[in-house]
Amino acid sequence: MKNLLFILLVFFQIFHLNAQGTLPESFFDGKSVVLVSADPGARPIMTWTQVADSVHQSLVAAGADPVAYFELEKVALSEAVQADYAQSLNKRMVRNIILITRQKNGSSIHVGVFSADAKIISSTSLFGIQGTDLKATADQFSSLSQNRESNNLLVIDVPEFLSITNEETSSNQKFIATNPLNLDVFKLGVPIDGTSAESGFLSYFRYDMYGKSQATILAEQASQKSGIEQILKSDYPNQVEWLTEAKTVDELIKDKVQFILMKVEGRESDMMKSMGVENVSNSPRIVYKYYIKLLVRDELYIGPEWDADPDWRVALGNFLSNLKK
After folding, report:
1. Exposed/middle/buried for 4, CB within 10 Å: 0-12, 13-18, 19+?
2. Beta carbons within 10 angstroms of residue 87's beta carbon
3. Within a 13 Å sphere around the CA of 168, how many CA atoms are in the beta-carbon half?
4. Which of 13, 63, 147, 175 is least surrounded, with the fewest CB atoms within 10 Å of its CB?
5. In terms of DSSP bridges, do strands 187-191 and 240-243 run parallel, antiparallel, or are they unpaired?
6. Local confidence pLDDT in tens for the 325 residues of the chain
7. Are residues 310 and 185 part of one domain?
8. 232 and 154 both lie in a single domain
9. What are the backbone angles phi and psi of residue 168, rounded to the nearest 5°?
10. How big is the chain by its Cα radius of gyration, in Å?
11. What is the DSSP string of 217-247?
12. CA distances (Å), 323 to each of 5, 117, 205, 319, 320, in order?
């Protein structure tokens, strides 16, 4: 009897050491969409769809209603892409977002309420469970329904991999392959990654981003700002406003900030397709692409030439050079 109590105590401690946050009530009574990020360097090798296959039954056992699976990197490609997905998820009456992250040294499953806007989730502080490997994490997650009855009854037996269509979306944010006018009249706002001015909450759960320490994040932010400052000083002659906290569009315009320098990172082929670039490359390489958002008309200017690069410094330099054309 003592041995049994000891085992239960150890299990209880492990579970709570690896679980964080509060599970949304809507998890047990509403549709969920699952976003998967899988490290291609993790072993054994698994594609993101294979990861989805391996965790689906555990999500269902936990009480979820996972109606569709998408690759996180494609959804988080840019603000405009996220806006399109948000339109589709709203039409499907999705209530929750489940995030699966598989890394070389472990896996995690997080759950948050769908924000119903282009951010998809409103915070990175979500309920989450972490484990040393995907199976251990999924098994632990599946036990969530032991003390709670789920109202999600008619769930699909196998994961469904969907793609959104143009008919499902009505986002006004579209990419324009030219340069914006009046950059010399108004300030260019420059958000710093990881601050509240930067809206990419989904990217936090990418396999190459999740789990970074606060010290590492702060060091990367300082390095990034220093690097951007040097490039802007040499290649951008107009006014710049550093954005380290969230502001409304009206507040930015009041401060004479009408343009925002945006950066996206992802597979080059996915990025070119999402931006409407002709002669789409089949390149699988991960690249950075800069563009400018005009706040007053919600227009996205990617410049007259494709200038993405695996090095963000090179990509920024290319983009600023193309602004002069």
Report:
1. exposed
2. 18
3. 16
4. 147
5. parallel
6. 444 444 444 343 333 335 567 899 999 999 999 999 999 889 999 999 999 999 999 999 999 999 999 999 889 877 778 888 999 999 999 999 999 999 999 999 999 999 999 889 988 899 999 999 999 999 999 999 887 899 999 999 999 998 776 555 445 567 899 999 999 999 999 987 654 444 468 888 999 889 887 788 778 778 878 889 899 999 999 999 988 666 778 888 898 999 999 988 888 888 888 888 877 777 778 899 999 999 988 889 999 999 999 999 999 999 999 999 8
7. yes
8. no
9. -85, -15
10. 21
11. HHHHHHHHHHHHHHHHHHH--S-EEEE-S--
12. 68, 30, 32, 6, 5
Residues 65 and 185 in one domain: no
Per DSSP, the three-state class of 276 is coil
Among 118, 145, 168, residue at a domain's last position? 168
Give the number of domains in the chain: 2
- C-alpha 44/C-alpha 159 separation (Å) is 21
Residue showing tokens 């380290």: 244
Q: What DSSP character marks residue 192?
A: P
Considering the domain architecture, whether residues 45 and 193 belong to the same structural domain is answered as no
- Note whether 96 and 228 are same-domain residues: no
Domain that holds residue 312: 175-322
Asked if 286 and 308 count as a contact pair (C-beta separation under 8 A), the reply is no
Are residue 123 and residue 223 in the same domain, yes or no? no
Helix (H) or strand (E) holding 86: helix 79-91
Q: Do residues 68 and 181 share a domain?
A: no
Same domain, 208 and 157: no
Amino acid at residue number 193: D
Alpha-carbon distances, residue 139 vs 34, 128, 181 (angstroms): 17, 13, 55
CB 138 within 8 A of CB 58: yes
The CA distances from residue 118 to 80, 150, 170, 199, 219, in Å, are 8, 28, 12, 9, 28
**Which among 147, 168, 189 is the end of a domain?**
168
